[in-house]
Amino acid sequence: MLPGVGNEQSTALQNLGDVSQRLRTDPGTPSAPDSLASAVAAIREINKLPPEQRKEAAKELEARLKTPGAQKAIQAQLTEIAKPIMQTLGPNHIPPPKPLAFLDLLKPGEAYVDLYKYYVREGTGFGGLHYLAVVSDGKGSRLVRLGAAEPIDNAIAGYMANVQERKTFESNWKELQRLVTQPVLAALPADAKTIWLSPDAELFNLPFSSLMLDQRADTSVTVVPSAYDFSRLQSASPGPPIGKALLVGDLVADPPSASAPAAVPLADVTSSFDGQKLQLQALRGRDATLPAVMTHMKDAQYILFSTHGRWENAAAGTTEDAFGSAGIELWSEGSGPSGSVLTGTDILRNDLSQTDLVVLLACDTAKGQPVNGQGSLGFQSAFMAAGARSLLVALWRVPAEASKELIQNFYAGLFKRNLSRAEALKQAQLALRSQERFADPWNWGGWVLIGDPRPVMQ
């Protein structure tokens, strides 16, 4: 028996070693193992290990499964498994979409758009990656094939590169409208005024509200990470408003680097709450520490951060890595501003079910790790998982003056005009675009509303 583990765990470690050895075998040889079955067996053995050994074993298995040999063997076995299904369905058959139970929660004038990245089949096997949109309203669903993923992903990569380098991205913008938003909007019902949109993989990096601004003027957009979030927001009662707003910012050394724009001073934001029956709690400078923020977030109806965002690991391999890599800078005693970071992992430790709206006036706060089938894992998805009803986040480093103007217009739309959150964002973007000094999409195009699109609780 191995030291420090019981009989069953010792046996599991030995079995895992045997299974791992089978996964090392060259799948091109006549004696190739069943890699799919070996992987399943390995997972079963890993689940028997104590937690501290389970994580390391899982990482080792993941690395082995990513080798070309294992990938080739598993792909071949999946193709064999799929053959009888493909033959039964025929070469061009796609089952008609059936309305899902959660779509019963759609209200009149609403539509739900689910975007998928998936493998198409070619003959009896699997071909390349494609994108598909499922557009639904209360009457049913329609499939919209967006085509091969490569040109769409290339257009997204080009647009993101140009944004990062502060170059014009008008051509990328038009290409993405042609490839993605135009066919989706064409499939929408004529009476759809609010779109709940759930993007997959790299599509989570697109500012859909901005892209659609000129394509369908009477429609506003919100993004939801999943159908679960949509169901939660549509069916859960938010309860009475608790009447507290938490504002965090004014870190003294600003900006932390020449490439990052200065943060918006809290004094330019607090006036937006005038006339509202709210208790304002401002954490400025030295008061904006991680423990203080964690404490005051728990009972805040509105939360605003005006600081700097971080995304530290572009190759985050696990959910834990993705949540830990995304965050915003706070004050740390001993190291000052930007010495401490509120991460997605910290957010997940809080119950934010009473939080109606979070505004992140910080660069790159919409960034995350694209995951096929799960959208994007990062700061924004952590807030939703913690129970917040909605967030306003930025996909890139928006200049402070433009950010100030947009957020003042956004809050005015919410509190003074009683607009829905989605409509308030759209009107704020239109207001900036109409001004010559802010007309460039760099100033207004990067904002994304995530979650509940409806008016806030007052």
Please, could you describe this protein's structure?
The strands form 4 sheets. This protein has a 6-stranded mixed β-sheet, sandwiched between helices. Strands 3-2-1-4-5 form a 5-stranded mixed β-sheet. The radius of gyration is 24 Å and the shape is globular. The longest helix has 22 residues. The protein starts with 6 loop residues before the first helix and ends in a 7-residue tail after the last strand. Helix 7 links the parallel strand 4 and strand 5. It has 3 domains: 81 residues; 123 residues, Nucleotidyltransferase, domain 5; 211 residues, Rossmann fold, CATH 3.40.50.1460. By secondary structure, the chain is an alpha/beta fold. 39% of the residues lie in helices and 22% in strands. The chain has 16 helices and 16 strands.
Topology readout:
Elements: H1 7-24, H2 35-46, H3 51-65, H4 68-89, E1 110-122, E2 125-137, E3 140-148, H5 149-164, H6 170-186, E4 194-198, H7 208-211, E5 220-223, H8 227-235, E6 244-249, H9 267-270, E7 279-284, H10 290-297, E8 302-306, E9 309-311, H11 319-325, E10 326-332, E11 336-343, H12 344-348, E12 357-360, E13 368-371, E14 375-378, H13 379-385, E15 390-394, H14 400-415, H15 421-433, H16 441-444, E16 447-451
Parallel strand pairs: 1-4, 4-5, 6-7, 6-8, 8-12, 12-15
Antiparallel strand pairs: 1-2, 2-3, 9-10, 10-11, 13-14, 15-16
Helix pairs in contact: 1-2, 2-3, 5-6, 14-15
